[in-house]
Design brief:
Elements lengths: L5 E2 L11 E6 L8 E6 L6 E6 L6 E2 L15 E5 L8 H11 L4 E2 L7 E2 L4 E3 L15 H14 L6 E2 L9 E2 L2 E2 L1 E8 L5 E8 L28 H16 L10 E8 L3 H18 L11 E10 L10 H22 L4 E3 L2 E3 L2 H5 L16
Parallel strand pairs: 6-9, 15-16
Antiparallel strand pairs: 1-10, 2-3, 3-6, 4-16, 5-9, 7-8, 11-12, 13-14, 14-15, 17-18
């Protein structure tokens, strides 16, 4: 199954040195994949905040500010539920070959790459429960990231870890967005939107996240929304899979942050999920947000500790915008042995553009 990806006009790769790669599980009945966010060589300060009741993660304890690891080289977002966490092994092997990781001996080759990972539930979405990412998928994704180059446009929609994503019965996927602050610091976010909750306001058909833009969204005609609601209700009723999901996000910045500050950034970014999806952080979600700080730019000294506020606000805003873009970038609806998953575009018509109206990202 081949689907066309949409490339975001701005995204997490606008943070200098941060790269993104996707890989998809092969097979006619496969609907899963892996996404790797690769830090600049030398790594990035990192943190994680887990809010969902059913998370599937690897190496997240290493990111606790009380623990020894100071910087990491990559974050893995993957489909396949807990099985898919095996993708991190392929990323770890690639990093070892490139001598990237925590030095543990006198030889530069003596490294242990610490590769935090989190998974979404998409098992059986394509019809084959056993079609899920493995180490080879992870390796393909990190190789794609390394080959992408700085400031490359990021593919969104049904790609990588978002290949089989579903949001409230609609197709979800990968979305990304970025913003350059007045201080010159860049913040970017990438999400895998795959939630039990809905991204659509039930009374209007507008995407929840679009309501937080500076200009109000154009609401779908009433008759279109009514027809869409009926079609979505039918699709949900026909679902053969349990409502197990999870939304994942990575917020990256070129700011120099302490590990505690990165932890705060990861935590407040969850607000962006809550604005775009309702309800969130349920027992059958594993909502997880990572933060990466490359350290290329210092926070404005004159603002003191409050200088972090601009980054916190931007991180949450960008996660919301990235979720909207993920839903809009989802390809046509999917109906098969794994379930019936219409897309937002199928129900409401293709958007006039592929990003929410209102405040637009500032140019570099």
């Amino acid at each position: 199954m081949t689907e066309t990806a949409w490339f975001s006009p701005d995204g997490i790769a606008d943070v200098s040195g941060v790269r993104v790669g996707h890989a998809r599980v092969a097979g006619v009945r496969a609907l899963s994949g892996t996404t790797v966010v690769l830090a600049p060589e030398g790594g990035a300060v990192a943190a994680v905040d887990v809010r969902g009741g059913g998370p599937g993660t690897r190496e997240t304890d290493a990111l606790d500010p009380r623990n020894v690891v100071q910087r990491i080289e990559a974050v893995v977002l993957t489909g396949g539920s807990a099985y898919g966490l095996e993708a991190a092994a392929g990323v770890m092997a690639w990093l070892e070959e490139h001598r990237r990781g925590v030095r543990v001996g006198p030889d530069p080759a003596h490294v242990v790459p610490v590769v935090p990972a989190a998974c979404v539930f998409d098992l059986g979405r394509g019809g084959d429960f056993a079609a899920r990412p493995d180490a080879a998928t992870g390796r393909a994704a990190v190789e794609a990231a390394a080959a992408g180059g700085d400031h490359a446009r990021v593919a969104t929609g049904a790609v990588g870890a978002g290949t089989g994503a579903v949001v409230g019965g609609l197709r979800g996927g990968v979305g990304t967005a970025s913003l350059r602050l007045e201080s010159g610091i860049t913040v970017g976010a990438l999400v895998v939107a795959n939630a039990v909750g809905s991204a659509v306001h039930p009374g209007t058909g507008a995407l929840y996240g679009s309501l937080f833009e500076d200009a109000p969204p154009e609401l779908p005609p009433r008759e279109v929304h009514e027809a869409a609601s009926r079609r979505l209700a039918e699709a949900r009723a026909a679902s053969v899979r349990p409502p197990l999901n999870t939304t994942l996000a990575v917020v990256a910045t070129d700011a120099a942050l302490t590990r505690a500050q990165a932890q705060k950034l990861a935590g407040t970014a969850h607000d962006g999920i809550a604005r775009a999806i309702r309800p969130v952080h349920l027992m059958n979600d594993g909502d997880t947000v990572f933060a990466l700080a490359t350290g290329a730019r210092e926070l404005p000294a004159e603002a003191g500790p409050l200088a972090l506020n601009d980054l916190l606000a931007a991180g949450a805003d960008l996660v919301t915008r990235a979720i909207v873009r993920a839903v809009l970038a989802a390809p046509g609806g999917l109906r098969g042995p794994g379930g019936d998953f219409p897309s937002y575009g199928e129900l409401y018509g293709p958007p006039k553009d592929r990003q929410p109206r209102g405040r637009q990202p500032r140019s570099r």
